[in-house]
Each structure stands twice: as C-alpha cells, then as structure tokens.
Amino acid sequence: MSETAPGRPDPGEPDLEEYRLAARQWLAANLERREAGPAGLVRGGGTHSAEEYLPERALQRKIYQAGYAGINWPKRYGGQGLSDAHARAFAQEAAPYRMPDLGHAGGTTYGPVSQTLLRHASPDFLARHVPRILAGDELFVQLFSEPDAGSDMAGITTRAVRDGEGGWLITGSKVWTSGASYADYGLCLARTNWDAPKHRGLTWFAVPMRGEGMTIRPVREITGAAEFCQEFLDEVRVSDDEVIGEVDHGWAVAQTMLLVERGAGRDDPVNMPETDPATIDPFLVELVRAAGRAQDPVARQALARIHTADWARGQLGRRITGLLRTSDRPASGIASYWKLAAGVYNPQRARLMLEIGQGQPLVWRDDAGQRAALEYLNSRVWSIAGGSNEMQRNAISERVLGLPREPSFDRGRPFSEVQRSAREWLEKN
To answer: Residues of the signal sequence (predicted)?
Structure first.
C-alpha cells in the first residue's frame, strides 16, 4: 500500500532500525502490556455493544495520532506512506502490548474493505473516509450476502434507484453481516441496471448504518452470541459521492473484495508475521496441559498433527501472497486455494482440539476449554462464509486450471428476464 514502488527504497523513509527503536520506546511509554496467554479473537467469545467499543476506538485514535496507524498506507490519505518492512517492524514490536480490539467490524474495515477502497474508490472518497478509518472513527462492514443470494453473489436483488437529487435510494435486505450492530458504514452492493446480465448492472455504495430507513437485527448463532446481523434497507438515501468504482460496473470491485477476503489480503505485514516451525500455538499447549495430557502420546500426536498443518497452511498463504503480488494479472481463483484449505482444515483442526481436551471443552471449566468449544462450534464458518468449498473448487477448476465452465441458463441474459423466468418456473412447479 506504500506509494513507492515495491522493492524501491524511498530516500525519505526513516532507517528501519531507527524506526523500530522509536516505535519500541513509544509503545513502552504509551501502551499497556497485554496479559500473558493465548491471544486472538474467537467468534462467539462475547457480544459487545457500540458503547463497549468506545475505549477501543480511543486507543486506535491514540495510535493514529502518534503516526503508527496506516504505516504502509498512502500518505495523501492519512497513512504514513512507508514500506511494508516498517509496518512489519511495528507489528513485531507491538506484539506484547494491548492493541485495539475492534471486533469483527475492525477486521473487515482494516482488511477487505480498506484494500478494496484503496484500489477502487475516488480520491475524494478516500480523502474523506480513510483518515477517519485509520483514527477508528469509522468502522465498515460488508453488505454483500442476501437471504436469496449467498454463494451466487451476482444474484443479488437489493436495488438502488436515482432519487432525482444527485443521489440514490437503496431498498433490500442483507444478511450474515459480522459487526453490523456497532459499525458506522456498510459497503453495500446493489443492482442499478436490471436490463443488464446479472454480473453487470451492479454498483457499490458506502451506506450509513444509522441512516434513515436502515433497520439492523441481530441473528442468534449456535454459540449463543449474536455477532451476525440482518439489515433491512427501506429507501436509504446515499449521495453520488458515496459510490465506489463505476456505476453498473461493481462486479470488478466485488472481485477485488472476494480476492482479499479469500486470502489475497494476507500481504498485510500485520497479518503475516514471520513464523518459526518449532513454535507451537500457545493455546494448544495450554489446552493439553489443562486436560492433564502433556505426557500422553495420543494427545501429543494430535497436537503435532495440528502444528504441522498450521505451519503448512501458513506457508501456503505466503506462497499465494507472493504469486498475487508478483503478477500483474493474477488468476482470480488463486486465492481460492487458501480459502478452500481453511474450509477443509478448520473442522479437522477443531475436532482434534476436542480430542486433546476431552472433557475440558464440554464443561468449560477454564478459558482453554471454552475456546476449544467455540472453535468447534465455529469450525464450519470458513467452509461457507466468503464462498462455500464447492464455489472455491469451481473457481480453481475454471479460472486457474482452465477447465470448462459449468452449464448456466442465465449467462448473457438480462437479469430482469432471469428473475421473471425463475418466478414462472416456481409457479409451474
């Protein structure tokens, strides 16, 4: 995200070691060290109100004001314009400290949303929103899936129509939105041309989550939490200034978002720490000890299987990132390899964790048991969210391997005609 070309040092950049030392000193003077033990967000580990995130937003603002947010983001939009190496150095130094936890909306904001915006939004849009994103004042979610359009994302029916006053009125419903209950904006895909084929005639909008006509309803999950939400949009007004990309050409923007969501965004140095193949996930160590099985050969074998697969998947992620960053026109299905690996492996990993913990995850007597149980309940998420395993296999076969596409009755037909044909078929059957 740096404004300089990759691999070319900017003569104006601070020396890397001097930068690291300054960051180390600032962190020690301004942030609290985090508590010892496994870190990481676990879906279902807690549900927070918007008010409970205010201290986290304040902490994000403090980091931003010190110049340590958006380190490798473009300088003209509020970032620091430094190299990935500088961002990685800060992430390494910040690891022992308590950093802002902005939940799933934070992960979406600083991951798929921000990278999509930086590639497709207008300079005016970026100048308005990116500084506020970096300061924690604006959190974004993805208003992508719909009750009748999940894996077939191009089949959405949320509509946006001109209101005659230089803006749009958006009506429809979105679902499975993580963190919508406390987010500020939603990056919303809506249909703006019903006479075009379904992959065309789509447009992206930045929709205010507290705007008039927006209703947000939490969806209770198997974990007991309600981090997912469904949104109902009833003529929510959005100005032309909040359009991302070109009107009716939103599928190109959607492809970027899906590419990042499915693994291509792992080029962010904060998300790609250098890994030591000899270092086992501390949580696994805590779990096996809590279960009293540290010397049990069966438990140790299961732990070794998890650790080996964790390391292999990490290397896969780095390999995919390298391919995507060094290719001018990477195959859009490349990121599906990482997404498919997660969808297949996560349920296996969670089952092995239950086998290691035995009764610990069932009775939740300690943090290790609770986390193992939540990991198991959430283990199917990546086999569905962001595109099912079947969709990833299709993407790999068609876009990477060049195999024939599956037959499709709606390709090239106006979406309004496709909708009419579907209704007639349902009426007859």
So the answer is: none
CATH of span 275-400: 1.20.140.10
Contact call for residues 337 and 263 (beta carbons, < 8 A): yes
> Could you tell me the sign of the dihedral formed by the alpha carbons of 339, 342, 347, 348, in that order?
positive
Give per-residue pLDDT as tens, 373-407: 888 888 888 888 778 899 889 989 988 899 998 77
Tell me whether strands 228-239 and 167-174 are parallel, antiparallel or unpaired: antiparallel
What's the confidence (pLDDT) of residue 128?
97
261 is a catalytic site residue: yes
pLDDT tier for residue 266 given thresholds of 50, 70 and 90: very low
Nearest Cα to Cα of residue 90 among 117, 112, 70, 119 = 70
Domain ranges across the chain: 16-137, 142-249, 275-400
The C-alpha atoms of residue 425 and residue 61 are separated, in whole angstroms, by 54
CA triple 3-269-7, angle to 5 deg: 45
Structure-token match 């992620």, residue found: 317
Choose among 102, 134, 135: nearest CA to 118: 134
Q: Helix or strand or coil: residue 172?
A: strand
Catalytic residue among 93, 261, 286, 427: 261
142-249: which CATH architecture? Beta Barrel (2.40)
Tens of pLDDT along 87-112?
A: 999 999 999 999 999 988 999 999 99
Count the neighbouring beta carbons within 10 Å of the beta carbon of residue 366. 15
Instruction: Report the C-alpha gap between 2 and 72 in whole angstroms.
Output: 5
CB 213 within 8 A of CB 236: yes
d(CA 210, CA 403): 45
Please give the model's pTM, rounded to 2 decimal places. 0.84
CATH class for domain 16-137? mainly alpha
